[in-house]
Amino acid sequence: MYIFSMKILTINSILFLFNIFQIFGSASPLFFLFFFSALLFFYFFSLFLFDF
Q: Where are the transmembrane segments (predicted)?
């Protein structure tokens, strides 16, 4: 149940960052790319950490 809530939280964070990217437009694509890659790293790290 905890892993499922973590996945939902990660999906909501991705959607939130995508909304930020749409607000800023093409002014900072590297900024969005950095945050997206960091979020993907945190997602897979949490999968390895909490998947017993």
A: 7-24, 30-50
Q: How far apart are CA 32 and CA 47, in angstroms?
A: 22
Averaged pLDDT, groups of 10, the chain, 52 residues long: 70 77 66 78 77 56
Q: Which residues contact 42 (CB under 8 A, 6 or more apart)?
A: 10
Q: What is the distance between the alpha carbons of residues 7 and 3, in angstroms, rounded to a whole number?
A: 6
Nearest to 17 by CA among 5, 1, 34, 2: 34
CB contact at 8 A, 35 and 17: yes
Q: Give the DSSP H or E segment for 5.
A: helix 2-24
How far apart (Å, rounded) are the C-alpha atoms in residues 12 and 16? 6
